[in-house]
Amino acid sequence: MCGIVGYVGPQDAAPILIEGLGRLEYRGYDSAGVAIGSKAGLKVRKVSGRVADLAAELPARFKGSPGIGHTRWATHGEPTPENAHPHTDMAGRIAVVHNGIIENADELRAKLAADGVEFTSQTDTETVAHLVAAAFQSGAADLEQAVRQALRQVVGAYGLAVLDVEHPDRIVVARNGSPVLLGVGEKEMFVASDVAALIGYTRQVVYLDDGELATITPNGYRTFTLDDRSTAKSPSTIDWDVVGAEIGDNAHFLIKEINEQPRTIERALRGRLDERFDTAHLGGLNLTVREAREIRRVKILGCGTACYAGELGAQLIEDLARVPATSEAASEFRYRNPVVEPDTLYVAVSQSGETIDTLAAVQELQRKGGRVIGIVNVVGSTIARQVDGGIYLHAGPEMSVAATKSFTSTVVAFALLALHLGRIRDLSPSEGRRIIAGLNALPAQVTEILEQEATIAEVAKEIAQSNSVMFVGRRRGWPVAREGAQKLKEVSYVHAEAYPSAELKHGPLALISPEMPTVAVVPDDDLLDKNTSTLSEIKARKGPVVALAHRELPAELADRTIVVPRNEPELDSVLLSIPLQLLAYHAAVALGRDVDKPRNLAKSVTVE
Ligand code: G6P
User: Distance between CA atoms of 27 and 403, rounded to whole angstroms?
Assistant: First the structure.
């Protein structure tokens, strides 16, 4: 939820911190701050608001190195400048930035206060700065030792970076439950909570594991544990380019990412289709054919959009592999002492690979001996490293809080998994060929839909006038409707509800009126009659209808039809979801919303 950046080296840290924080702002954006260790002492600047506000506040003389910075999404305490990070000790020697939650903060605060410490914020993080200072007072020889001593008293989750003006050649960082990685440069070193912050500076990164600390100096790094055992680590190379993370000529990241989908779908497919055996190759699954054949059930876990993509994934697996499959919110699953079965394949879905509820579900599964694979976008992320195998999306950085390209790429990844599981069971070669042809057709068909943006924007303007919008769909159209409603509420704040079409008459039909439009997913499949009778029910109550369909629907069924090209029935949902993304985007624009950074939300939710 919050972002950390740090720099040590010959350059001035501030511009590097500001740029890195800007790239991390999607993780949290209600306050920001930086601290620089200079010969004249510690310099700290904090603001409530955005990174741009912080940059505007920095005086020209805010120079020096090392430096640490933070962008925050408030958990403990209001988003005020006092509560923004970095937090310092009373002497103004130590500065700390922190992601996560220190669970025994109240206890630590009371103990420190009894020793005469005066707190300047309401945060849990401030305790760490005082604990490090106290460690020096009680004789810690260097910063590493002081941080280790401090952290031994801390219970909870953290990714943190500590700067000490008395040790201006270094930053000490630690990870326990919240990601921290090091960036290796030429005679300079970086630290960040997320690779996005380092794009443009280095591609050589070192991921820390839980329980690990590191010291970075201009000349390199050393990793070690709380009890000071060295852990040798070598850097890995990241392959994301700067362009992927830049907004370019686009008004928002959201529309840029929606428009990227023909290419991101292509990337999800690249090298994975085997036209000789009409199947899919997924190198990272780490499942032998025999193991894959022994799977009796598939259980998919994710949060928000990832969970809805999982619902489509479950249907694809049932359709193509005839293996029973379900998707569930990881946040629910982890708390209900789930029954874990040895012949179930568990699939964790996460764009960021950092969502705490999904990670906790994975850990609970693994503790009980479950086999878990991941469908993840961010290479090297915590979930990607935790699972037993998986499929990377290769969708490039997704910067907008609302997920779009990661949703369609996840569904495509599930189609590949379903094809693979199907072809080692009873899916015939000709059926396999049909799905491969459908997958190959997707990018051009997505482009066709994107060309209708202007028409969809018109519909969105009308939708934006409503207080509430109903989304309905049946079978594969149901997760599409859920995701459509989710997108609309996330970015436009227009209330939206999603219901399976057949459930409408069991309650929500009472809401239908001329003031409440319905967006209906109506593919031209074997359920078309059922779907059109739902539309008649809505029209009979004078509810306006916007239909997503494969051909123009008559006026007595729909006031507007958005016509989407037809693919194979199993894959149509990828295409049907694209107009709903555009609808949400243009409704948000029409209402003047902060499209990429919706209120109260963060891109990756790494705290409970
Ligand atoms: C947050 C975001 C959602 C996202 C969900 C899961 O709630 O606001 O857009 O779908 O997390 O994120 P993940 O990175 O695990 O896919």
Answer: 13
Cβ of 95 below 6 Å from ligand 1: no
Does pLDDT of 432 surpass 70?
Answer: yes
Spatial distance between the Cα atoms of 36 and 250, rounded to a whole number of angstroms: 33
Dist. CA 27–CA 445, nearest whole Å = 32
Encoding tokens for residue 79? 């988003």
Atom in ligand 1 nearest the alpha carbon of residue 302:
15
| 401 Cβ below 6 A of ligand 1 | yes
Share of the chain above pLDDT 90, in %: 80
pLDDT value at 243 more than 60? no
Of ligand 1's listed atoms, the one at least distance from the Cα of 402 is 9
Among 254, 283, 571, 313, which Cα is nearest to 443's?
571
> Residue 485: what residue type?
A
Q: Which of 195, 597, 603 for mutating ligand 1's site (highest number of atoms within 8 Å of CB)? A: 603
> In the annotation, is 303 catalytic?
no
- Cβ within 8 Å of residue 465, ≥6 positions away: none
Q: What is the pLDDT of residue 26?
A: 67
Q: Which pLDDT score, from 0 to 100, does residue 508 have?
A: 86
Characterize 198-223 residue by residue with b for buried, 16 or more Cβ atoms within 10 angstroms of its Cβ, and e for exposed: bbebbbbbbbbebebbbbbbbeebbb
Cα atoms in the Cβ-side hemisphere of radius 13 Å centred on 389: 14
Entry pTM = 0.80
- Distance (angstroms) between ligand 1 centre and the Cα of 358 equals 10
Instruction: Tell whether ligand 1 has an atom less than 6 A from the beta carbon of residue 605.
Output: yes
Give the span between the Cα atoms of 551 and 568, in whole angstroms. 15
Measured in Å, residue 354 CA sits from the centre of ligand 1 at: 9
Rounded distance from Cα 240 to ligand 1 centre (Å) = 20
The helix (H) or strand (E) run that includes residue 222 is strand 220-225
pLDDT of 597 reads 85
